[in-house]
Amino acid sequence: MTDQMTPQDLDDCPVSEFTFARLLGTSLSAARELAKALPEDQRSRLAVYCYRRAHLRRLGLSIAKTCSKHSLVEESGHAGELIHFQAQNMEETLAGDRYMAPRHVKRPVSLHNC
User: Fold this and answer.
1) Axis-axis angle for helices 69-76, 40-51 (nearest 10)
2) N or C: which end of the chain has fewer CB within 10 A?
């Protein structure tokens, strides 16, 4: 892990666009199997990259489940410990995630009284 991370570091996907598209186009279990083919340091970078994006958090946790705690900590410091813990307890983690929780039901719009 480097001491100074720049905003560009956070935006650089650690895999090719083709590989990333394949990961996004498969089920979580298939994505996990594809990710296992990557070297562990690249896999942990990918897990952290996805985890940091709310809409990809489920994928990030699924990939993180294949990483060692050490590699996740090397990649993102203390956050790596949290990601490792959450990946090992993925269902409980996602159940409490406000982004992934069902949205409140909105009342339908009516023009009846206009």
Assistant:
1) 60
2) C
Tokens at 21, concatenated: 């598209």
d(CA 12, CA 42): 12
- pTM of the full structure: 0.75
Helix ranges, the chain (H): 7-11, 17-24, 28-36, 40-51, 57-64, 69-76, 78-88, 90-95
Distance (Å) of CA 112 to CA 58, 106, 108, 109: 42, 17, 11, 9
Amino acid occupying residue 52 = R
Q: Which two tokens stand for residue 66?
A: 């294949």
